[in-house]
Structure formats: C-alpha cells, structure tokens
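Subject: mismatched residue count in predicted assembly?

I count 794 residues in my input, but I want to confirm that the predicted structure covers every chain. Input:
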Amino acid sequence: MKSFKFSISSLLSIAVLLVVGIGSTISSGGGSGGPAPPPPSGDTDPTLAINAANGEDVSSAVVTTIIASFDLGEISGNGPFAQAAGPGLAGMKALGPLYSKFGSPLEAVQENCAIDGTVDLTINIADLNAPTVGDRIVAVFANCDDNLGYVISGTVDLTIAALQGDVNTDVFLIAFDTILTDVEIIEGVDVYTADGGFTLTLDALEFPVLTTSMVGEDLQLGSNGEVVSLSDFDHSLTVDTGVVPDTKLAEASGRLDSNSLGGSVDYVTTTPLQGTGDQDPHSGVILITGAGNSSVRIVVVDSQHVTLEIDSNGDGVVDDYIDTTWAALEQQAGGGQVSSINSSNARTIAREVFNGITGFGSVAVTAGGQFGVNGAFDLVRQQSLSGNFGPLTFDCATSGTVDISGSIATAGTYTSNDHFEAFFTNCVRGNDELDRAMTVDVDSFDAGPGDAYLVSATVTENDLLRFFGGSCFSGTGTFETSYDFLYTTANSIQMTSSANAINIWAGGRSQDLAAAIVTAQIDVGQQPAIITRQSSGVITSDDLVGIFTYESTVPDIFVVDDLATTGPYNGRLLVTAADGSTMTLVGQDQLNARLELDFDGDTAVDEQIVTTWADLGYGNSFGLCDQ
Amino acid sequence: MFTSTKKGIRQQAIRKIALPGSAVLALLIGVAVYVIDRDWASALFLLPVAAFQPDTSALFGPLGQVLPSFLHAYAFSLLLILALGHSRNARRNGALTWFAIASCLEFLQATYFHDLLSAPATPAAAAVATSVQSYVLNGQFDPGDVVASGLGCAAAFAISSVLEVTR
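Triage response: the counts match. Full output below for your records.
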C-alpha cells in the first residue's frame, strides 16, 4: 500500500483549501440558483400573490405581526405576575411571591391592579412553596392597569409545561402552555387583541442571555383594526443583557393570513434579525413567500432602512426594489401615517366615528332582538324543531322573508351551541328591516316571565343591512353579544356587544372598528324609547389618515325617533389621535353637536366647532348604506 | 537530458501558473454569475451589500443555474490536486475528495436536514453556526448541482492529467 508523505506546508495548504472551499460553498448559498423554497407551513400553499403593488403592505403586516407577537409573549408571561414584579423574564421570579399569596393550592382571588381595574386569579397548583410542572394559573383581567405601560383585559390561561432551574434565581427555564381568550391590550393609542394558543418558553439558563420563544399552531392577532391569523408559527427573541446596550436576535417563521391583504403568505427569517438596545434591527433578512412562489425579501440595510426585493413571478429574479424604512413598515398598518386632529379634518373624523359606533350598535342590537316575539329565531322556536333543520323559509312579521337553517338541541327553547344561519330578504318587523346574512351560535339563553329573555351569543354578519328609524347601516364581522330583553329590569333592554374587528358601511363609506365595545340601555317604558349608550374602540376608514381611539366619557342619550337627522342630546365621546391631539364630540341637543378640539393634548380646548347631527350622519343616505 | 529539463521547466510553469490561473479564473467567473445573475441577498458573501444591488439580469441564462457548482468544483479540485503533488494518485484523490465534499454539502440542503437544523440559533451558537444553518435552510437540494460538481472535478482531473503528463 502506497503511503502519502506531505510536508507541513503541504498539509497546511490542503487544510486551508478545504476550509476555504467549504466556506465559499456555504457563503454562496449553494450552487443552484432560483428561488429558495418556501418555509414549511403545513400542507397547503400560500394563497396571496405578492407583487410590487402589495409588497410593502405584505412586508408591513409580517413585520408588525412579529413585533406584536414578541410584545404579546412578554405580556402573557408577565401578566399574571405583574402585580409583584416588573416586565419580562423578571416577572417569572415573582412566581414564588405569587404562590405565597395563596392560602391553598386550589384558590380563586380577585385583586386590584396597581392603577385601575382588577384581575381574577384562579390557581390549581401542586405545591404552594414552589412552581411545579402542571401548575395552572388562570388570570381574568378587567381593564387592568398595573402601570406597565398598557391596559389589559381578557383571559390568560397558563399551565407550566416545563421547568428547569430555580425561578428565584437568575438561571432558569420555564415553559407555559398558554391560551389567550379575548385578550385586549391598549398601549397608548395602539390596541392589540389576541385569541389562540401557543407554548411560551422563557429561557434564562444562559443568563444574562434571555430567550423568549412562542411556538403555536393557531393564533389570531389584532393590531389597530387589522386582524391576522398566524399558523404553524415559531418566533424567538434572544436578548443578551450582559452588554450595554443589550443585543437582540430575533427569528420567526410561520404563515400569516389576513383578510385585508386578501390571502396568506409564509415567512421566515433566512438571516436572523439582529439589533441593539431599543433600535430597530440593523441586519437580517426576512423572506416572505406567496402564491406561485412569488416573494418579497426584506433585506435590512441598517437600523433605519430596509430594502424590499420583490419577485412577482416566482422565477427567482428580483423584479422590483423598494427602498423604505422600518418606521414606514411599522406605520403601514395604520395607513402609513400618524393620525392627527385639526380644524380641517375634525368634522370628517367626527362623522366617521359617530357613524361607526352607531352602525355597530345598530347591527349588533338587532341580533339579540331576533330571539324576541316573532323575531327570526323565535319563528324557528315556534315550530318546536330539534336537531338539524332547514333551510326553511319564514314570513317575517310584517313583510319579507327569512331563510333559516341550523341546529337546535331542545325543541321549544334555545340552549348553548344552538346554531342558526339566517338570510333575510326585505324582512320587516315593525319599523325594522333586515337584508342578507346573519349566523348566530347561542352561548346561553334564559327565559323570563312573559316575553322577557336573556341571551348571549356569538354573531357573524356578512353585509347584514339594517334600516331602522330613518337610518341604515350594514355590518360585516363577528362579535359577542349579550341581550337582556326586560329580563333583569322591566321596561329596559340592555345590550353589550364586543368585536375584535367589524366593518360598518353607511352612506357609501366604510369604517373599520377594532376592539370595539358598545353597551346600550334602551328604556322602552316610554315612547319613543330612550337609549343610553357607551362606546369604546379603535377606528380606521378610507376617509381617515391613520388610526383613532374613541371612548365615551359621558354616555350618549338619545331618543329613538328620527335617527336620520337627530342624535344624542347628551354625552361626550373622546376621540384621540396617535399624535396626542384629541376631539370631544359633545351632544348639545337632538339636532346640534359640538366638537371640542385639543390640538396639543394638554386637555385645554383650543377650538370649538358647532355642527349638526344631520351634518355628521349618514342616516338619510338610503340606498348608499349598502356595499 | 535537455529535453527532460525543458519538459520539467514546462511542467513547473504549468503547475505554477497555468493550472492555478485556470482555477482562479474559474472562481472569478463563478463570482461573476452571482454578481450579475443572482439575488445578492441569497448569497451570504454578498449579503452585506445586498441592499445596493442593481437590477439582476440573466446574462448566463440557464447555464448560470449550475455553472457556479461546476466552476467551484473545478477550481478547488484543481487546487487540491496541486497541493497533493504531481502524481496520478494525487489527481485522482484530489478530484474524488472534492467531489465527496461538494456532494455532502449539497445533500445538506435536502429536506431532511432542513427539519434537523430548523431549531433557532442563539447568540452562543455564533455566526458560523448561523451561517451553516442559513445555508442549509435557505438552499435547495439540486441533483444538477451534484452532476455539475462531478463534471467540475472530472474536468480538473482531466486538465491536470493532460497538462502535466502529455506535454
């Protein structure tokens, strides 16, 4: 056998060659060209074709969603323990003190949040002295402000899935199986919502390097009115707190589905995003892949600038380049500009907000009303049906028809999980007319004396059109509603509805509401009836630049009369823009309203505008409220 | 005596100039394929300047898909052959060794390794690990690359054999 003999220099040459050769192969990304394969994300292909027209919007949606998920991860992990600790992983160290608050391993307590609101904590833990895998903590927040920079509502359900180290030290790992239900986080003028589940892991085993990861199959995230669905996602954020400023490394992959974008895309950080301190990432690449292998690659230039490389036809060759900024991408979801209130746009903003909240109230209250005498679902109940039924066509009380199908568990009444799908055609009951589709899933139903009832349900409307009292609105979206018809209080109907996102059309214009809540008390003991209403939420519309929050500081009170030209004779609705400017919409009397403008957010009124409800309303625009 | 000396001088010149020169030229052409035809963000060595890429073209056409693999294999096989010495065994071992390395690297881009290495990197994993991970996850296994690498290695073996022996 022949042996090889090499000098030291030859061996070094060979070694260097091998290292350089392998390194150059890796640094070139492999030999073949063409687009990189889309990231794994289930069995189906993404549905949204990416092109130059939507590339920036798609990039913005992905970037803002990733950012929102990291915020959510921090808040979810910290939330239940916020009263005892600061934000982030430090909150985990409060597990010990938190556990010591309880007197037994099975307990429910309510505590006040530091500034405002409450949190109901329910625990089911093995050992009061130490967190244990399997421990479960359910926190129900109600407008909880712990002075952490945000206000949180909704349910956070955490079960400890893994635990290493000691949470009372700096070195530990803890993983939670997390379920979020109707979570709403208000941070300044930004409103985030979340529903879904994921595993949240907080890893400090290599302290001072801290890693937060979120891995899940399905999560609905709302950001200022834009609701997206994440599936098969895996996000991680690693922060080295041992250096100043801290360094961050973020990786993310998954599928994003957005109604407003019009489909789904897959995303993956092909090169991890890296940043320092509070600055945006200074390096990294995010590849977003759409239908037909179309793609947009977000290439980070520095902590201010990014370049979008768009391959519209999926041939691997970049067709368009867009130079933009992180700030632009992060603002794109809000219309790309920071909202502001001034003399020239105040009437438009007031009109949009007033019609948005009135429209939401109108299309929401009618859902619960359908369980009343001769309402659409009452017509079904009168048939004593049970099991699956329909579609059946019913004559509406006054005129028109409604086609209904669905399922009823118990004949003659409604119970949880009863399901109705109704399609109205010129369906008139009294002075109330409905058209098109409404789907209702009953959560609970209680019948009271006489015609009284109390129903809670999940309602989905698809361009449901309602004419009532001289006004007309249509709604598209899903909301939770509770409708109390004379059940609790005689002569009073009480309704509360909330929607993560709903679209309202009126007067040929649309308003998108997010995190929207409307409560109404309708005094039917006098004629015409009197409505007392409160609203809160976030609004965007085609006629508005940016996003606005709104909140009733004094309830509206108005007479159910001619809603086309009249409005609340009382009430104050505070509207806040992203730049801090505000407007208060004040009801002076049934015909007139006043806008109090505060341009600098110092609470002093800088300008007043007197207007009329007729000027602000769309109610008299029959024929235009339809999409 | 003179003939063999002249032959030795020629072979030395070939070893010192022609063969390394052809390897370097091959590498330069390969780089040109990336610079002219490819998306800079898809190649780690061009990533720092990816944001400044002018419009891509298709100068090398379909050939540009596999040309880098061929040229890269040719260049490094040849350099390896030169480092191993001038014998038939050196030429054969150099070409085969590089073909084995190139094939392994290409197979790393197969789906199996995508799944295996899809765990997120940490700062502790350092830039090298991140680069390897990026290479594996972003690349796509292509049998054409394996064939091109084989042809490159074979070409290196053949060229070095022809130039070193026949002349």
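The first helix of chain B runs from residue 2 to 37. Marking this ticket as 'not a bug'.
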